[in-house]
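Why should sequence recovery work at all? Because a backbone constrains its sequence more than one might expect. Tight turns favour small or flexible residues, buried strands favour hydrophobic ones, and helices have their own preferences. The token representation captures these environments compactly. In the example below, the structure is given first.
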């Protein structure tokens, strides 16, 4: 069972942004930038291109909605998107409010307090 399935099942806490029948979005715990969010299908699939086409397209639609809320909430040049999955083999779309290329490198990280994570998640939710 992946760590994200444990989050989906409520066994591990997260700073949740959005949830529907098939997907959940929550803040990345080790963000590249403020607002770095993961959009995750509840079905545990390892690789993005293994998903059936319908679920893939619906994940993109869900991610678009969350990304638009991020753009409204966090001052940034744009929201970058990446799918990697080398650390957690359960499909997830990284949505990252970016200003420069280093924000997409996964080498530069920002640290937030628990209160900051909570306030950020609340602010993003209001813009969904
Ligand atoms: P990837 O698998 O795409 O290389 O990276 C996995 C991402 O998941 C990383 O950005 C990492 O910070 C994030 N991550 C790993 N474990 C947890 C967790 O327990 N909670 C949250 N919110 N994010 C996590």
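From this structural description, the recovered sequence reads:
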């Amino acid at each position: 069972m992946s760590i994200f399935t444990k989050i989906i099942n409520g066994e591990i806490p997260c700073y949740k942004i959005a949830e529907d029948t098939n997907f959940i979005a929550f803040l990345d715990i080790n963000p590249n930038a403020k607002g770095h969010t993961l959009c995750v299908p509840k079905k545990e699939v390892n690789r993005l291109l293994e998903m059936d086409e319908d679920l893939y397209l619906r994940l993109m639609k869900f991610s678009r909605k969350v990304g638009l809320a991020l753009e409204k909430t966090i001052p940034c040049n744009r929201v970058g998107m990446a799918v990697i999955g080398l650390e957690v083999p359960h499909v997830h779309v990284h949505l990252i409010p970016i200003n420069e290329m280093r924000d997409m490198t996964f080498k530069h990280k920002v640290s937030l307090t628990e209160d900051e994570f909570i306030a950020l998640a609340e602010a993003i939710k209001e813009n969904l």
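A few observations help interpret the result. The mean pLDDT is 98.
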